[in-house]
Amino acid sequence: MDIGHCHLDGNADAVEFCPHESFHNVLAACTYTLQEGDQSSRTGSISLFDVDANSSRLSLIHRVQTAGIFDIKWSPIGGIVGRLLAHADAEGYVRVHKLESCLVESQVPGNSLLEISDEHVSSSMCLCIDWNPSATSLAVGLSDGTVSIISFLESQLGISRDWKAHDFEVWAASYDIHQPQLVYTGSDDCKFSCWDLRDDPSTIAFQNRKVHTMGICCISKSPNDPYTLLTGSYDEHLRVWDVRSTAKPVHETSISMGGGVWRIKYHPSLSKLKAIKLKWLKPITNMAPWHMEQIGKEVV
Fold first, then answer.
1. d(CA 300, CA 289)
2. When comparing pLDDT for 277 and 97, which is higher?
3. Nearest Cα to 156, choosing from 106, 115, 206, 112?
4. Which of 82, 116, 86, 117 is nearest to 101 (CA)?
């Protein structure tokens, strides 16, 4: 299933195929590298690749040097904003890029990113990001335990609200696809929470603090089932939840491969296939980003 490989200029944190029509071949990958020394820095990049599975080709077409990036998300198909890529970085910024189409027929379509907006959210690091279904706002988790809701209107970002949601780093913040007034969060404090955005400040709809034995790394709502949600944790367990009853998961399985479950993605057309990215704890450079169109794991 290896259709190609490319050396990135840092540790890979997230990979995302563009979901928009005619650009499914465009893959974005972001990196984060801690440069240690007297004046340490966190550097990163976003790389765009053209992926051709038929010819087993993975070609780098564009790269943007940035601060260290922890997460990226393409704008959803149902939104009205077009082909946008948002990122959360180590300097506390959220930035939104537009995928530009190349007009030269001999070159690959969608071969560059143009930054169109940015917002300095906090002096803390922005660790995760997610669009709401209409692409009018983003949920961002921060290293100080805060969750921020960032509005995106007329191509401009602005802080709508924020609140102290967790005791430690918020590694997962995800909108409910079917009920976008709800945001799910997970943290190093092992708490799995849901917040209702109809209240200001946002009120907690539920919280489970007993099931995850280590920090929660990722949350993924099923695009097909309005009640199913998945969580991944440093405790190496993948858990399936019914959001109507969150006292305990309906299913959990150990992914015993030496690291936490860092990313979960649903296959775009096969509802029973999920992809998992494992983040190795030691050493941190030994990270393996796997994409949903390359590796699937049946869990239900």
1. 22
2. 97
3. 115
4. 82
Q: For residue 298, list its beta bridge partners.
A: 273
Q: CA 227, CA 224: separation in Å to the nearest integer?
A: 9
Which amino acid appears at position 204 of this protein? I
DSSP string of 74-88, one letter each residue: EPPTTSSS-SEEEEE
Residue 159 forms beta bridges with which residues? 150
Cα angle vertex 295, ends 264, 236, to 5°? Answer: 45
Spatial separation of the C-alpha atoms in residues 236 and 243, rounded to whole Å = 21
Q: Which amino acid is at 157?
A: L
Instruction: Report the pLDDT value the prediction gives residue 287, as an integer from 0 to 100.
Output: 32
The mean pLDDT of 146-152, rounded to a whole number, is 98
pLDDT interval class at 269 (50, 70, 90): confident
State phi, psi for 171 to the nearest 5 degrees: -90, -15
pLDDT bucket at 14, cuts 50 / 70 / 90: very high
* Dihedral of the alpha carbons of 256, 258, 263, 268, in degrees to the nearest 10: -50
CA distances from 138 to 38, 94, 100, 217, 234 (A): 35, 9, 21, 18, 25
Q: Which of 123-137, 144-158, 181-195, 282-296 has the lowest mean pLDDT?
A: 282-296
The pTM of the full predicted model, rounded to 2 decimals, is 0.87
DSSP output for 149-190: EEEEETTEEEEEEEEE--SS-EEEEEE-SS-TTEEEEEETT-
pLDDT for position 282 = 34
| Cα–Cα dist 212/194, whole Å | 15
Name residue, tokens 């260290």. Answer: 68
Cβ-Cβ contacts under 8 Å for 171 (sequence gap 6 or more): 127, 128, 141, 186, 187, 188, 215, 216, 217, 218
